[in-house]
Amino acid sequence: MNFRLTGLWVGQTSLLGGQPERKAGGNWLTYQPASGRWQAIYEVGEATVEQYFLFEKGTPTDGDLVIEGQFQTHLQPELISNEAGIRFVRRGGQSDEAVLGYGPALVSDGLGRQLTAQLELQGKRLRIIIPAAWLAQAEFPVVVDPLIGPAELVSDKNNTVSDPAVASDGSNFLSVWSWQGDIYGQQVNSSGVLSGSLITISQADGVQEDPAISYNPTSNEYLVVWDDHRYGVNYGSLWAQRLNTGGQLVGSAFDLTGIRKMDVPAVAVSSSGTYLVVWSDRPSPTSGTWDIGGQWVSSSGVLSGSRITL
After folding, report:
1. Whether 169 and 206 share a structural domain
2. Is the peptide bond prior to 33 cis by the omega test (within 30 degrees of 0)?
3. For the chain, which terminus, N or C, has the lower number of CB atoms within 10 Å?
4. Are 128 and 117 in contact (CB under 8 A)?
5. pLDDT digits 0-9 by tens, 42-99
6. Taking 70 as the threshold, does the pLDDT of residue 285 lie above it?
7. What is the rounded CA–CA span in Å between residue 277 and residue 301?
8. Are 102 and 212 in a shared domain?
9. How far does CA 12 lie from the centroid of its chain?
10. How many CB atoms sit inside 10 A of residue 227's CB?
């Protein structure tokens, strides 16, 4: 399947310009016009192609941002919803087979504000629409990120138990891990005997993995953080959940980072009861290097200050 960009505009202003410059490196490919105000970026994964549209400061904001393209494929595209995206079906004799998925188109700005873009499909022509009201308040750069991959990846989950981590409150232990793409926990007493039942920490859409955990003696609680892919298979965010020493969830899970390319979180607590969460952070979609990002979190689960680069 190919996607051919046929239109790009804000309000009445076209952003296409002339023939865009093509650059390639490693597993990615970019197209950028002479104006330099946007890029189309393609990053090839093991079973997916990540398609980004990156809009820089100076992009007009006086109307809807519309990305228009044409799918070139023998498969039949079907729009499910803005949140579920498009599936591509191979027509059969008595049954149809969903082969590929496209979307949803997730939008994020420099402040971490997020939006699921509107999708309009007419035949094989697609429009991705970001409303003017959202765009006018956006902090650039703005990234529009649809995912192209096998249809089953929309809900596929890892079938293995992995990524164990453990912390202690001084008397007992809380172990956490990833299983079938969700995050679970189990209390263990000081004699090594399981205490209580299995704890479901997160069963959000997509894959959750790489949990980390820390005990906070100030609040007498645990904080569990993990790599979360509810926004897309190849595009992660970090989420967190508080638990008390009885193994009960405290409040709801919360987003630490917004949509961003990141991985492998770790968490520690200070003597004052403030958590520091750190992770491996990719500064831009085409960067070949990774930084270490961090975020302070209060004992009550409130983000403190802005994201930091270590």
Report:
1. yes
2. no
3. C
4. yes
5. 877 665 677 889 999 889 999 999 999 998 888 889 998 888 788 888 776 555 666 7
6. no
7. 12
8. no
9. 31
10. 23
Is the pTM higher than 0.90? no
Q: Which domain holds residue 98?
A: 2-154
CA dist 213 to 80, 158, 265, Å?
37, 21, 10
Cα–Cα distance for residue pair 55/60, rounded to 1 Å: 10
Cβ within 8 Å of residue 271, ≥6 positions away: none
The Cα–Cα gap between 67 and 61 comes to 14
Same domain, 135 and 177: no
* Candidate from 18-32, 65-79, 143-157, 212-226 with smallest mean pLDDT: 143-157
Distance CA 40, CA 35 (A): 13
Domain total in the chain: 2
- Assess whether 6 and 148 both reside in one domain: yes
Residue type, 198: L
The one-letter code for the residue type at 34 is: A
Residue 10 scores a pLDDT above 90? yes
SS3 of the chain: the string is CEEEEEEEEECCEECCCCCCEEEEECCEEEEECCCCCEEEEEEECCCCEEEEEEECCCCCCCCCEEEEEEEECCCEEEEEECCCEEEEEECCCCCCEEEEEECCCEEECCCCCEEECEEEEECCEEEEEECHHHHHCCCCCEEEECEEEEHHHHCCCCCCEEEEEEEECCCCEEEEEEECCEEEEEEECCCCCEEEEEEEEECCCCCEEEEEEEEECCCCEEEEEEEECCCCCCCCEEEEEEEECCCCEEEEEEECCCCCCEEEEEEEECCCCCEEEEEEECCCCCCCCCEEEEEEECCCCCEEEEEEEC
- CATH number of the domain to which 202 belongs: 2.115.10.20
Contacts of 257 (CB under 8 A, 6+ apart): 112, 237, 238, 279, 293, 295, 307
Record the tokens describing residue 25, joined without a space: 């490196």
